[in-house]
Write a structure and sequence with these properties.
The complex is a heterotrimer of chains A (293), B (320) and C (428).
Chain A lengths: L2 H33 L6 H18 L4 H28 L6 H23 L13 E3 L4 E3 H23 L1 H11 L1 H6 L4 H27 L7 H14 L4 H21 L2 H18 L11
Antiparallel strand pairs in A: 1-2
Chain B lengths: L2 H24 L2 H27 L7 H18 L3 H23 L4 H21 L1 H4 L5 E2 L6 E4 L2 E4 L3 H24 L1 H11 L1 H6 L4 H27 L1 E2 L6 H14 L6 H19 L3 H15 L3 H9 L6
Helix pairs in contact in B: 1-7, 2-7, 2-10, 2-11, 2-12, 3-4, 3-5, 3-10, 4-10, 7-8, 7-10, 8-10, 11-12, 11-14, 12-13
Chain C lengths: L13 H16 L11 E8 L6 H20 L7 E8 L4 H13 L5 E3 L4 H13 L4 E2 L16 E2 L6 H15 L3 E7 L2 H16 L3 E8 L19 E4 L6 H12 L5 E5 L20 E4 L11 H10 L6 E2 L2 E5 L2 H20 L8 H10 L2 E2 L10 E4 L4 E4 L2 E6 L2 E7 L19
Helix pairs in contact in C: 2-9, 3-4, 5-6, 9-10
The chains are: A mainly alpha (293), B mainly alpha (320), C alpha/beta (428).
Chain lengths: 293, 320, 428
């Protein structure tokens, strides 16, 4: 294939990857921004989103779109509930101490992952996409559903932006993120905010997974890669900055997509991982991050 | 710490080591084998504890030092035919240099960033073992050649396939690691570490070079971890990418926490308990990782100081 | 700066702590789940991959082994003794796999270990088994054994190795599908084996490799690799493993549409996966290597019928109790056949216990042929006592209407290659 079309293909693939990554990473970023904790189990919420999507779609017969839409609604709700419970039962009691939370979320990771193994099984399971649309570009065929993912991600980010900037809930979250103590002084129940934000972060990861599961299948080990990538994105974009996260996700999704087309994927991963480490070293708050108060 | 306390701890250490030593004559073969593995892993945890328990830095990527020791020692025998004792030293040296390089860049970062930076470096290490699979064997790994399964020492040949030999070598390494820890803890250095852990800002203001001290601790930590890795590779004759994976970084954290971060014997206890637990549990259920997850959460919620740490807090304040 | 790593201390009292410690201690001090210490049994250690990436295979290996053990015991056991299979999970992890071998040798004191599959686990565990002088019969397909990388205690009598499988495919592919081949393979040992052996084999048939495309084993999206396939390729050879294989097929379909080259794959990609999955529609008309045909063929042997009945697999290769639970049919027969080989060799050596270990090994090395039978349902085999590796027939099947139909069966000779090692010359 000539270079031009090949690059075009690489860009498309990169955009799809960036879309899923953006939604997942924003979830992680929200949690870090408002709660100042790192959730190592974030990838498992993603995985659970895919797993529940499969459960839902296997129950609902008829046109796959029905099952898919149901999954898009139900799965994140279930995952959100699980996240909420985890937060109340475990994280709250640790007073959000950063290191303790990391250890506790590692524990959660094992629990979720192994539970998925027990109830879902070791095999990868497929979910049908809501529609089949094969686009015929002059040089190659392409799955139209992937374009849907890109569109969906854009819409979702729009919703999140609206939520943060133009609703009271968003205001409360931003206030808590900016200065927890003052927010509390103003009568905001910061504990409750934490629980809801944690749930929201998990739900975003779950939605990303539901979007991607028709093209990637649900598998109980699928959470690790998104976790690492989200970490990379959130840190490079800036701990606590949503805009930074989005920009970083697009850059990293695109560059990973394009680089790994032309170079070895393992090498590409190594380079991006090293990049994260060095960004953190020289700019401890990420590229766009705001320092802790 | 008073001389009395130091004395008591020294006696405790000696007793524990003596018991460990005697185990090889008392226990059936299977346990001798597993305890050998445990001792080497305990060395890894002792190294990790140096950083986590004594200075208060949580690294999520310590597997890279273990793996560095493992690979450099193992590959030295595999590709270059170097003898076992020299390969062991090469492994340690490699880990030391790596700790120096990573320590210098990672230590200036704080808390959460430090955790993630170490995690990232460890991931790069893991990916490197895969990328150079031609030399490292990648995920399949390499079994060390026959010549690397024995070594000469003052005229006698020791076979590394022999349980007694392995046990005693592992024991020796553990004794040295614990000894070094003990010495560091009771020295002026140890007090500076403790001061940094308790209040870094104040320690700096008092005129101590906090960065240099942290780097020192990091070097001890990485080198001891590397020694454990080199020992593991050479004693058991296998190197593979799995040892550089995140799982090993998390396991060593788990061992240290369970036994008690910041205690001398905590890592050893943690390794013992956790490995036995996994071994027994995997007979009963395939969901043993789930139990580990629960244990981690229980630990961090109710026993943040681990077993020995809790004992120290509640009943035995002289325990190191 | 906080005082310690974690925030304020615990909320336990001395009493609760003591209770906790006591409970924990009693769990750990308890003897392991007691095994019937019957002196009159032959003990077989089975390190199956119950968890980890090999879990789908491990479960079927276990079911097949249990069926075989039951059958053997119903027939009177071996030399009058019942056989007892002790299963340990190794998590498909090389380190744990090695530890489990030690456990079998020293704690359970088994007579033989069998059933390991994934090659990276075998690579670590094999040498240890050799050191412990424990007969270690692998069901792995790896070439390490026949390539001389293991030891005299290791055997692979139940399944052919990948070099043999790949080599036997080349003649048919070059004659029926095409001579210009592009290979897509996972970028680790298993994939490299395919790359190396097939390249060699197809060139020997006068064919050529159009392109070699290595793909990281954890890759989840493949669209970006397909443009690397040269437009004059006649055959695409794929052996993708892992959960992403459905994506692979679907994206392959998206990319090529109806004008595609011939496609040949190894069923390893789709073991335990239902062919009737919509995403796999694109595979219709493509070809696969199968060791044992998943779907019962028109000329199904009575042995295959017997095997399916005993293990609990229906004519579509799925579990009789759950049609969605598809088996790993091209691999699990290895466990069955290995158990019967053990029986045969032990009977030849009049094996009663570990004292006759050497006789057992010599008996194994003296075996040369297995005929298709209830004990060897996959088909005739030829065993090489020097390389410890067995050779057999391979099948090429075509996907038609969501099922696999065998179109060609190779001869045992098609997969033979020059012996690379002679274990009988080594000391025990």
């Amino acid at each position: 294939m000539a270079f031009g079309p090949y690059l075009f293909l690489a860009i498309l693939e990169g955009l799809v990857q960036a879309s899923v990554l953006t939604v997942t990473a924003v979830g992680l970023s929200l949690v870090f921004g408002v709660m100042r904790v790192v959730n190592v189990a974030h990838g498992e919420f993603y995985m659970l989103g895919a797993v529940f999507a499969w459960f839902v779609t296997s129950f609902i017969t008829g046109h796959p779109a029905l099952g898919f839409i149901a999954a898009l609604v139900i799965s994140p709700l279930i995952v959100g509930a699980i996240a909420f419970a985890s937060e109340r039962l475990v994280l709250k009691r640790l007073n959000y101490d950063p290191e303790a939370t990391i250890v506790a979320t590692i524990g959660l990771l094992y629990i979720f992952q192994q539970s998925a193994l027990i109830f879902f099984g070791p095999n990868a399971q497929a979910v049908e996409p809501p529609f089949y649309w094969r686009i015929r570009f002059p040089w190659f065929g392409y799955d139209g559903y992937k374009l849907f993912i890109i569109a969906a991600a854009i819409v979702l980010m729009g919703v999140v932006w609206y939520l943060m900037k133009h609703t009271k809930a968003g205001l409360v979250m931003r206030a808590t993120q900016l200065d927890r103590e003052t927010a509390q002084a103003f009568g905001i129940n910061v504990d409750n905010v934490s629980a809801y934000v944690f749930a929201l972060g998990a739900m975003l990861a779950a939605v990303a997974a539901v979007l991607v599961v028709p093209i990637q299948q649900a598998h109980y080990l699928m959470g690790l890669d998104p976790l690492l990538l989200s970490f990379i994105v959130v840190i490079i974009g800036g701990l606590g900055s949503i805009q930074g996260t989005i920009i970083a996700a697009i850059i990293i999704g695109l560059s990973d997509g394009i680089l790994s087309v032309f170079f070895s994927p393992t090498l590409a991963k190594m380079v991006s991982t090293l990049l994260v480490a060095f960004v953190l070293i020289f700019r401890p708050n990420g590229l766009f991050g705001k320092a802790e108060r | 710490m008073s001389a009395n306390h130091i004395g008591r701890n020294l006696i405790l250490l000696a007793v524990v080591l003596a018991i460990a030593f005697v185990m090889q004559f008392v226990l059936p073969t299977y346990y001798v084998l597993t305890i050998t593995r445990m001792m080497v892993l305990a060395v890894f945890a002792v190294g990790y504890n140096m950083l986590l328990g004594y200075v208060g830095l949580l690294s999520l990527g310590h597997a890279i030092f273990f793996a560095a020791g493992l690979y450099f020692a193992g590959l030295a025998t595999y590709h270059l035919g170097i003898s076992v004792p020299v390969a062991f030293l090469i492994g340690i040296a490699a880990a030391f240099l790596l700790a120096l390089a990573i320590g210098v860049v990672a230590l200036p970062t704080m808390r959460v960033s430090f955790m993630i930076v170490t995690l990232m470096f460890a991931q790069v290490g893991f990916l490197t073992t895969l990328y150079f699979a031609e030399y490292t064997g990648g995920q399949d790994g390499l079994s060390l050649p026959h010549a690397a399964r024995q070594f000469d020492f003052f005229g006698t040949t020791f076979s590394l396939a022999n349980e007694q030999v392995r046990f005693n070598l592992a024991f020796g390494l553990l004794a040295i690691a614990l000894g070094v820890s003990f010495l560091v803890l009771t020295s002026r250095r140890g007090r500076i570490f403790a001061a940094i852990r308790e209040n870094e800002g104040r320690t700096e203001m008092l005129g101590f070079n906090v960065f240099a001290s942290k780097l020192e601790a990091f070097l001890y930590s990485g080198t001891i971890a590397g020694a454990a890795g080199a020992a593991y590779g050479l004693l058991f004759g296998y190197v593979g990418s799995t040892f550089a994976s995140i799982q090993y970084s998390i396991e060593v954290l788990l061992f240290t926490l369970l036994g008690g971060a910041g205690t001398l014997l905590g890592p050893l206890l943690g390794v013992l308990l956790m490995t036995t637990l996994i071994d027994r549990l995997s007979e009963l259920t395939t969901a043993y990782l789930l139990v580990i997850g629960v244990v981690l959460i229980v630990l961090v919620l109710w026993f943040p100081k681990g077993i020995l740490g809790t004992i120290r807090e509640r009943w035995l304040p002289w325990l190191m | 700066m906080t005082k310690s790593i974690f925030s304020e201390g615990s909320i336990i009292t001395r009493r609760t702590a003591l209770k906790g410690f006591a409970a924990g201690a009693s769990l750990l001090a308890s003897p392991h789940v007691p095994r019937a210490q019957t002196g009159g049994t032959i003990k077989l250690g089975a390190p199956f991959h119950r968890t980890g990436i090999g879990a789908s295979y491990g479960r079927w290996y276990e079911r097949t082994a249990q069926a075989a053990v039951k059958l053997i015991n119903e027939g009177g056991g071996i030399n009058g003794k019942m056989i007892e299979m002790i299963v340990e999970d190794d998590g498909t992890d090389p380190k744990r796999g090695t530890e489990v071998i030690e456990k079998f040798a020293t704690e359970h004191k088994v007579d033989v270990v069998f059933g390991h599959l994934f090659s990276h686990v075998v690579a670590a565990a094999g040498p240890r088994a050799g050191e412990l002088k424990l007969p270690y019969l692998v069901c792995s397909e790896g070439h390490q054994l026949a390539g001389g990388g293991l030891n005299r205690y290791t055997f692979q009598p139940g399944i052919t190795d990948v070099k043999s499988q790949v080599a036997s495919m080349a003649p048919w592919i070059s004659k029926n599908l095409g001579k210009k081949v592009t290979m897509l393979f996972p970028d680790y040992a298993f994939g490299h084996n395919h790359r190396d052996y097939f390249s060699e084999a197809i060139k020997a048939q006068g064919g050529e490799i159009s392109a070699l495309i290595p793909i990281p084993p954890t890759e989840s999206s493949f669209t970006r690799y397909f443009p690397q396939i040269p437009s004059d390729t006649e055959v695409i050879y794929h052996v993708m493993v892992g959960p992403a294989v459905l994506t692979f097929v679907k994206e392959l379909g998206d990319h090529f549409g109806s004008t595609r080259p011939q496609i040949f794959g190894f069923i390893d990609s789709l073991e335990a996966v239902d062919l009737a999955t919509p995403q796999l529609e694109y595979l219709d008309g493509t070809y696969f290597w199968e060791a044992a045909p998943r779907y019962a063929q028109k000329d199904q042997t009575e042995f295959d019928k017997f095997f399916r009945e005993k293990v609990g697999v229906d004519a579509n290769g799925a579990s009789t109790s759950d049609p969605k639970d598809v088996s790993t049919y091209s691999h699990m027969f290895s466990v069955w056949e290995t158990l019967f080989v053990i029986k045969q060799a032990m009977e030849m050596a009049k094996y009663e216990g570990p004292d006759q270990k050497k006789d057992f090994i010599l008996a194994l090395e003296s075996l040369d042929k297995f005929s298709a039978s209830n004990e060897h349902p996959q088909g005739d085999k030829v065993f090489n006592g020097k390389t410890h590796q067995v050779f057999g027939k391979q099948n090429i099947s075509k996907v038609e209407g969501g099922k696999l139909n065998v179109v060609h069966t190779t001869s045992i000779e098609d997969g033979m290659y020059e012996p690379e090692v002679d274990y009988t010359k080594m000391e025990l």
